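Hi everyone,

Forwarding the result from last night's run.
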Amino acid sequence: MKRTILAVLAVFVTWSALDFVIHGLILGSIYEATPALWRPKAEMKMGLMYVTVLMSAAVFVYIYARFITKKGVKTAVLYGLVFGIGAGVPMGYGTYSVMPIPYVMAFVWFAGSVVEAVAAGLVAGLIIKK
């Protein structure tokens, strides 16, 4: 149980750091160029955003810890890759299909989801062992 909680916290920190890079550094200027699509910074609900990231980290780790029988870094990274593709397609391209976001944003959302999930798999695999 301790390793699972540690893995949830480690995935949360990993995702938060990668979110900063993806959304702050890589996509920051695109967000600024499309202000009509987003809440003003003063109205953003960042506390809620962190709760959603924590909940997602908990679900990601729970699935790995509970349902993946062959524990190990390789399996965890492959799990992260599949999870990332499954989450990234609707995140990037599903959103692109219904919102007027630039294509590069859709691609980075997709690719970023894959990178984040692979990183989370690596973290989970290093912490949760058989």
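The radius of gyration is 16 Å.

Cheers,
N.
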